[in-house]
């Protein structure tokens, strides 16, 4: 008779094995549960981080769909030109020399948006007397002495650099299009290589066209903004917002912001915030304590009425700010064009959403490029609702 000792041993060991198996399974399940919960928490935190990153890093900016896309703006419509200028490095320009440069010198619809303001090489670094205030600037500048600045009986701003309101700093960069004198295509570097215009890098004032074409109704014979009155009289431009319905054949990208050289009817720019006016005392106090700004750093200063910064937009590009426009006094806060306007901003109240395709005259945004009010109740889609942008500075 054969005794199966192995079978008996296995029978005796089975409950222990089952117990160990169940204990091991329980441990594995616990680890899996906690691991899964930990992973779930990590995933949630990651998603929240991505959401904040998107809100903070890509808020409303889509310059292709704004009026600053001069190729798609129906009232300007920049196109290729001869791009030839005596004495400049322009003999190699454009498709007219395909064996040398191909067609990379052409300015084609939607393909060269940034070039009308910026260049990766040889741009101006000291715009309006302030280093780095307009990054990689690719334009001829306005002549600051050609402007008639704002003035009024109540005007109490102090300017240590000359006449109050004389444009400087980043405002000169803005006015290099909006003065109605400097040409839209007064570029330093045209697209591709071989199109370098040294005179636009070193000279200021009217002109500067490098020979592109403009077919829109807002452009005059000098390739700058056509003169117009801000009313509905014959030959004037009105602040009109409907596509295809503007005066003088406008296709709807109005208003035409040709400020001209007479700035007496415009909000003053390049003015130091008055230190003796009580209505500005609050924001001047907060400027010194916001954003960890280091005194003397020459960085921009956030404007906010809340001492804790409770209403400052998350995205710094949306924040109303003052600029260090006086290099000798880097903590003196100046109001400039870009204090209230972000040239890349693309929020569209009641209009076609930004980031939509295609990019064409019908989808060009007609916004006002406003930054976000640092006030309770600010509306990202209607940025001056309740005049909150104005009240961010003015305590009225």
Task: Describe the protein.
This protein is mostly helical and 396 residues long. It has helices spanning 5-57, 98-101, 169-178, 198-202, 281-287, 337-340, 388-391; strands at residues 78-79, 126-127, 130-131, 213-214, 271-272, 301-302, 321-322, 334-335. A two-stranded antiparallel sheet has the order 1-4. Strands 2-3 form a two-stranded antiparallel sheet. The longest helix is centred in the first third of the chain and has 53 residues, at 5-57.
Map the helices and strands.
Elements: H1 5-57, E1 78-79, H2 98-101, E2 126-127, E3 130-131, H3 169-178, H4 198-202, E4 213-214, E5 271-272, H5 281-287, E6 301-302, E7 321-322, E8 334-335, H6 337-340, H7 388-391
Antiparallel strand pairs: 1-4, 2-3, 5-8, 6-7
Summarize the structure.
With 396 residues, the chain is mostly helical.
Largest sheet: 2 strands, antiparallel
Helix content: 10-25%
> SSE order, as H and E?
HEHEEHHEEHEEEHH
Strand order of the largest sheet: 1-4
Uncertain runs are: 1-18, 40-58, 91-105, 236-244
The radius of gyration is 30 Å
What's the total helix number?
7
Task: Give descriptors for this structure.
two-stranded antiparallel ribbon, 8 strands, two-stranded antiparallel sheet, mainly alpha
């Amino acid at each position: 008779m054969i005794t199966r000792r192995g079978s008996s041993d296995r029978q005796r060991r089975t409950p222990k094995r089952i117990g160990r198996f169940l204990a091991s399974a329980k441990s594995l399940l616990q680890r899996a549960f906690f691991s899964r919960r930990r992973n779930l928490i990590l995933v949630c935190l990651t998603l929240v981080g991505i959401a904040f990153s998107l809100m903070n890093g890509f808020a409303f900016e889509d310059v292709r769909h704004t009026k600053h896309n001069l190729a798609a703006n129906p009232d300007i419509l920049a196109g290729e030109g001869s791009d030839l200028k005596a004495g400049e490095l322009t003999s190699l320009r454009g498709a007219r020399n395909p064996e040398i440069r191909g067609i990379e010198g052409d300015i084609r619809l939607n393909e060269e948006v940034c070039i009308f303001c910026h260049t990766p090489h040889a741009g101006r670094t000291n715009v309006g007397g302030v280093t780095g205030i307009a990054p990689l600037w690719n334009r001829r500048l306005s002549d600051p002495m050609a402007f008639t600045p704002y003035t009024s009986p109540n005007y109490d701003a102090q300017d240590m650099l000359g006449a109050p309101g004389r444009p400087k700093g980043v405002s000169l960069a803005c006015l290099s299009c909006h003065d109605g004198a400097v040409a839209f295509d007064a570029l330093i570097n045209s697209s591709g290589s071989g199109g370098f215009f040294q005179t636009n890098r070193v000279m200021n004032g009217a002109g500067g066209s490098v020979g592109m074409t403009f077919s829109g109704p807002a452009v005059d014979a000098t390739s700058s903004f056509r003169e117009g009155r801000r009313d509905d009289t014959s030959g004037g431009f009105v602040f009109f917002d409907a596509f295809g319905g503007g005066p003088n054949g406008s296709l709807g990208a109005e208003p035409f912001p040709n400020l001209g050289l007479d700035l007496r009817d415009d909000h003053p720019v390049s003015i130091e915030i008055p230190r003796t006016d009580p209505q500005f005392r609050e924001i001047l106090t907060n400027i010194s304590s916001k954003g960890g700004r280091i005194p003397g750093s020459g960085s921009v200063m956030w404007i906010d009425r809340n001492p804790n910064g409770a209403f400052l937009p998350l995205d710094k590009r949306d924040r109303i700010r003052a600029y260090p426009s006086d290099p000798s006094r880097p903590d003196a806060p100046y109001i400039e064009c870009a204090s209230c306007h972000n040239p890349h901003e693309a929020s569209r109240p009641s209009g076609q959403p930004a980031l939509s395709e295609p990019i064409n005259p019908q989808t060009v945004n007609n916004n006002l490029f406003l930054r976000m009010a640092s006030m309770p109740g600010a509306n990202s889609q209607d940025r001056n609702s309740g005049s909150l942008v104005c009240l961010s500075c003015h305590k009225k």
